[in-house]
Amino acid sequence: MLIILLVPFTIFAQEGKEGLGVAEAEKVQTLQSTTVTARKAEESAKDVPFSLSVISGNELENRRLANLEDALRQTPGIEVDTYGGSDTRNIRIRGVGSLESVSMDDTSVVINVDGVPQAVASATLNIMDIERVEILKGPQGTLMGRNSEAGAINIITKKPTRHLEGYLKGEYGTENTFLTEGAVSGPVSKTVSMRLAAKYSGYDNQVEYYNSTEPITEPRNFAVRATLLWEPTDKTDVTFSIGHEDIDNMTGADILAPYDDEQKTDIPKDSYDTEKSVDRFTLIFEHEFSAFDFTSVTGYVHTDANQQQYIYNGMIYREFYGFVPEGSMTRELEQKAFSQELRLSSKSGSDIFWVTGANYYRSERDLNNVDAYDTFYSIGWYNADLYKTFETTDIGVFGEVTYPVTDKLKLTGGLRYTWDKKEYDTDWTANPSNPSTIRTASDSDEMSESYGTGRVSVSYAVREDTNVYLTYARGHKAKGYNDWGNAFINGYDNDLIYDEAEIDSFELGAKFEAPNGKSGLNVAFFYNDIKDDHVMVWNHMDRVSDVENFDTESKGAEFSGFVKPGGGFTITAGFGYTDAEIKTVPGGSTSGAKEGNSIPNSPEWNATVSIAHSLSLKPFWGFKAPALVTTVTNRYIGSREGDPANTFELDSYNKLDFRIGVMSENLEVYVWGDNILDKVYDLYGWNYGASMVDGADVIVGMPSRGRILGVGAAYYF
Q: How many Å separate Cα 88 from the centre of its chain?
C-alpha cells in the first residue's frame, strides 16, 4: 500500500507577526463538529455509540470537496460506484449494500437532507452552503428509517442568521472547469431571518468523441435554495426551505478498457444529452417544552429527468461483435416523494438521552423508455416503448434511549417497527419494426411486509475524554422490484422481484477527544453478516436482466483521527481494512459468482491523509492581516474486484489534491489542483462477456477525470 504524504513548504512568511494569526486562521480548518444530530437530537459526537464521520463545511471548502461523491470517497470504509455522475450510482459502507444497483428505490444507504429522506439515485451530489455532513456507519434503520441497511448520510445545510453575512466565490480551471457560488443571510424582521444561496458549476467531460477532441458532454449544474427561519418565541423555531436544481448532461459512458491516454467513445454526436431537475420543499417545526423537545419535519421532493441513450458504442461493439449495430432510446424519469416525521426527544445535555417518533413516506415513480429502436436485436424489448410505475408506502414507529447505569457506564436500546408496501405496473408496446409476434404486454404486482429493526449498545467512559462501546444492530432492507426487469414480455416474472435483505452487525470501538481540541481518535472493529443482498445479472447479448440474492459477509477495522501539533499544522488521517466476500450463491445462478469471491468494488485497503497549515504573513498588496492557508490531501484506494464473478480487477490508485490560498479578513485568493498525479482510475467496471471475435473478455468502465489545475477567489462579509 502506497500512501503519499506531502508537507507544504511556505516562503517569504513570518509567524507571529502582525496579521490574522495562526489561531485565527485555523478557524477555517475546523475538523470536528462536537455537537451532532446523528440520533435526531443534539449530543456530543463522542457519546454516539457507533462509528460516525463528520465533515464540517469549512473542511469541505478547504479540501475542495465540491460534491457529495468526493466527500464520501475520502471517508474510510465508503465505496461509491458511479456512472459518471448520472442517476446510476451505488453506495456501500464497509462492504454492505447492493452488490450492483437494481432499483432506484434501493435503500442500502439513505441520504437525508435536513432530515428529509432521499433515495441515492434521486439525491443530489451537489454540496452547496453546507454546515456539515454526517456519515453514519452500520445499520441505521432504528432512527433513520427507509431501511438504511448499511448506513445513512445526513446533510445539514446552513441556516439563516440574525446578523448580516455572506460570501461570493468563483473558480476557473483547466478543461473549462468553473464554479460560481454565493450566499447571503440576515434578519428580515424581529422574528424572521432569511438565507439565499446559489451555485453554478460545470466542466468538459473527459471522454471525447472518436477521432475528435470534442467532449461528449459539457455537464452543467445550477442550484438555488432559499431558507426562511421564523422565531416567534425563544422556544419555537419554524424553518421553511425551498430549493431547485438543474443538472444537464451529467452522464457517463461505457469506455473500452484498458483506457488509453485519451478516453474515446464512438457514438453519434449529442447521444448523451440529459436534462434533470429537482425541486425540494422542507418545513421544520421545533418547540421546546419544559421536559422534552418536539420536532415535525415535512418534506417533498420532485425529480424530473430525460436522458437520451445510444445503446451501441462503436469501440466496444467492434470488439464484442466485430461490427457496430444501431440503436437508441430516451429514458424518462419522474418521481414524487413525500415524507412526514413527528418526534419527541430529550433536551440537550439531559442525563438520559431518548428520542421517539413516527414516520410516513410515500413515493410515486415513473420510469419510461420511449423513442427507442434497435436494428441489431430488433425482436428484443429495447425495440419498443416501455412504461413503468413504481409506488412505495412506508410507515414506521421508533424509539431509542441511552440510560446511565453509573457515572461511567451507559446502556442504549432502540427499536423500530416498519410497514412497507410496494406496487408496480408496466406496459410494453412493440415498435412496427419489431418482428416479434408479441405486440403488447403488461404486468402489475404488489407486495407488502412488516419488520422490526433495532440496536443495543453498552458504552463505558474510561476517562472523561475517552469512551469505549460495543454495539449490536439488526438491519433490514425491504424487498422490491427490479427497474430493468423485462421477462414479463414473454410471460415470466422471475426477473422482477429481489428479496428482502437482513443484516446482523457488531461493532467494538473507542472514541477519544482531547479537552483542548488538539487531537482526536476513533477506532472501530466490525463484523457484518448479511442475508440475501441483491445483484443484477445482465446479458449483453440478449439485453435482458435478472436479479439474484447472495449472502455476504464483511469484517475489518477503521482508524481515523486528527492532531494539531502546533506551528499552524493540522493533520487528519484515516484508514480502513475491509474483508468483504460472498458467502452463498443461489442454485442455478448465471452470474458466474462463486462462494468466497470478493464483493465487487470493495477494496481491502483504503486511506486518506490531509495536512493543513496556517501561517501569518506581513501585509502586502493591500491584504490586511493576511495568512497563508495550505491544504494537501491524498486518497488511496486499493485494488478491488470489478464484478461478482471476480473476472477482472480494478487497479489501486492515489489521488492527490491541494489548495493554497492567501486569506485576509474578508478576501481570499487561491490556487488548487485536483488529481495532480494525473491518475485515470475507474469509477466502476463491467464485464460484457466473451468477445464473438476472439473469445477474450470485453471489459468496460468509466474513467475518472485526470489532472485539473485552477485558481479561485472568495469574498466574505
A: 12
List the grid coordinates of 465: 475524554
CA-based nearest residue to 3, from 608, 576, 523, 659: 608
Question: Cell for 177?
Answer: 472547469
- Show Cβ contacts of residue 622 under 8 Å, excluding neighbours closer than 6 positions: none
Tens-digit pLDDT profile for residues 161-196? 999 999 999 999 999 999 999 999 999 999 999 999
Q: Is the pTM value of this prediction over 0.85?
A: yes
Q: Residues, the chain, total?
A: 717
Burial 190-229 (b: 16+ CB within 10 A, else e): eeebbbbbbbbbbbbbbbbbeeeeebbbebebbbebebbb
Supply the DSSP symbol for 599.
Answer: P
Three cell numbers written together for 427: 406496459
Tell me, what DSSP letter sits at residue 536?
E
Grid coordinates belonging to 566: 502546533
Calpha distance 114→478 (Å, rounded): 24
Is 373 within 8 Å of 383 (Cβ atoms)?
yes
Whose cell is 417497527? That residue is: 417
8-state DSSP, 129: S
CB of 122 closer than 8 Å to CB of 301: yes
Question: How far is it, in rounded angstroms, from Cα 334 to Cα 561?
Answer: 42
Interatomic CA distance for residues 68 and 81, integer angstroms: 13
Given 3-state DSSP classes, what are the helix, strand and coil percentages for the chain, each rounded to the nearest 5? Answer: 5, 60, 35
Task: Name the residue type at position 543.
Answer: R
Cα angle 194, 197, 200 (rounded to 5 degrees) comes to: 165
pLDDT in tens, 426-451: 999 999 999 999 999 999 999 999 99
